[in-house]
Amino acid sequence: GAVVSQHPSWVICKSGTSVKIECRSLDFQATTMFWYRQFPKQSLMLMATSNEGSKATYEQGVEKDKFLINHASLTLSTLTVTSAHPEDSSFYICSARELTGLTYEQYFGPGTRLTVT
Amino acid sequence: AQKVTQAQTEISVVEKEDVTLDCVYETRDTTYYLFWYKQPPSGELVFLIRRNSFDEQNEISGRYSWNFQKSTSSFNFTITASQVVDSAVYFCALSGGPYGQNFVFGPGTRLSVLP
User: Fold this and answer.
1) Parallel, antiparallel, or unpaired for β A10-13 and A112-116?
2) Whole-angstrom Cα distance, residue B41 to residue B37?
3) What's the distance, Cα to Cα, between the start and end of chain A in Å?
4) Dist. CA A93–CA A83, nearest whole Å
5) Residue B114: helix, strand or coil by DSSP?
């Protein structure tokens, strides 16, 4: 099946710094990409949806100035956590959607574990 | 609004027992998809199944089987003869509309299979 990669797989950063997470669809073009956040022992919560070439749509309660999303091409989306704080420590998972005729396929990346010290 | 409920937060079984994970969903869409994912300790989601709302046939894949009942808005997942490697968190998910708008995950069920 199709593969979605994320880089890095884990990152540790100091409070106040910014960190960028990349999400790539390796063998298909993703018309839409999604970013999820998962806190320990909780479910995945959608943060934002992005379509290539347009601004991301953020879910209620997600600060768009803090979580910058860029969907520069049909195979790459980036999430930048700006001025990170310990409460931003979480598991971030991206997902990429491929339209296939009248339906779609959605694939999830392996996740990026962010720890802010 | 769409919603997925997994009433069982945690389940523990002994190896070789059968276990059923419940999933109840709510949606106003006439076309929707239901999913089950497995999340082992590594964190990476493992896709298990996708079911179209128009296809109520039950499905069996090895030790896994799924029971989709629109009448009760349920999409339950059964593991037969469970194994220790089945220990993981299992998420039921729902996406509405033909292009999967509003993809929503349930809270998850943590399954522990004891040797």
Assistant:
1) parallel
2) 13
3) 37
4) 20
5) strand
Q: How far is A63 from chain B (nearest CA, A)?
A: 19
For residue B15, give the amino acid letter.
E
Rounded CA-CA distance B70/A43 in Å is 24
Q: Is A95 on the interface with B (CB under 8 A)?
A: yes
Please indicate if any CB of chain B lies within 8 Å of the CB of A72: no
pLDDT tens readout for residues A44-100: 999 999 988 888 999 999 999 999 999 888 999 999 999 999 999 999 999 999 887
Residue B80 structure tokens: 């037969």
What six digits make up the tokens of B48? 């298990």
CA distances from B38 to A32, A35, A45, B63, B88 (A): 23, 18, 16, 14, 6
Nearest to B32 by CA among B6, B58, B52, B49: B52
Rounded to whole angstroms, how far apart are CA atoms A10 and A87? 16
How far CA A27 is from CA of A6, A76, B50, B101, in Å, comes to 14, 12, 21, 23
